[in-house]
Amino acid sequence: MNRRMAVIADIHGNYDALSEVMKDMEKFDIDAVYCLGDIVSLGHQTNEVLELLTGLPNLTIIRGNHDEEVLKAFRKIPSEVTGPEHDHHVWVAEHLDPVYEEYLAALPLVQTREAGGKKILLTHYHLESDDTYTPIDPAPSVESLAPIYRDSDHDIILFGHDHMRHHFEHDHQLFLNPGALGVTSTAYAPYMIIEIEDDGAVHITHRNVHYDRQAFIGGLRREDPPAMDYILNVLLKERG
Ligand SMILES: [Fe+2]
Q: Could you tell me the residue ranges of all domains in the chain?
């Protein structure tokens, strides 16, 4: 039996994009959804995203750095993040429905799954030995990724965090980032489908799903959270 998994990453509070991606998945007979963290923050649709995800029957999910910071802000735990970014996390926490506090707190840093004989790692990004994230590599390659996972027995390494789509192969390992679903400079939200056949063959499909980006940006402008200029100009490449 084939195993077909949908991989989503960096939703960042963008329900408009996530809901269209979920509709797209319905075409593909998906067995499981893997979510690679940064569920909330940057976008304003925090509770809508969490409501959708917590209703999924076959979801494997981990936390990202933004999820952790929002939880810290909610619990008033001091953070090393300062300035407008911290103010933004406080704002998201103030809008977080308290029913999701325990859900965010329980999210693991990494998860491992087995599907079709393949061992799959879900991590928001590459981790140091002390479980902190390595600095973002703006131009990863097989040469930079392979040494990080040389001693890992995972066949497929899934990560997000850098908001770029990656697809690298080295020996028996695949290094994949589906791209940031909720932080897009176009009206297309990326995600990925992994299909594993009985004979172990792995097929990767990168999908781009149209969503109403202008409605999302309009909603964000109306909410006007802290760090708005950074979100609009730098992350969403939205001018004016
Ligand atoms: Fe992110």
A: 3-104+176-235
For residue 10, report the distance from its CA to the centre of ligand 1, in Å.
5
CATH architecture, range 3-104+176-235: 4-Layer Sandwich (3.60)
Tens digit of pLDDT for each residue in 34-78?
999 999 999 999 999 999 999 999 999 999 999 999 999 999 999
Global pTM?
Answer: 0.97
53 CA distance to ligand 1 centroid (A)? Answer: 17
Measured in Å, residue 62 CA sits from the centre of ligand 1 at 13
Q: What value, to the nearest 5°, has the Cα angle with vertex 106 and ends 206 and 160?
A: 25
State the distance from the centre of ligand 1 to the C-alpha of 197, rounded, in angstroms. Answer: 31
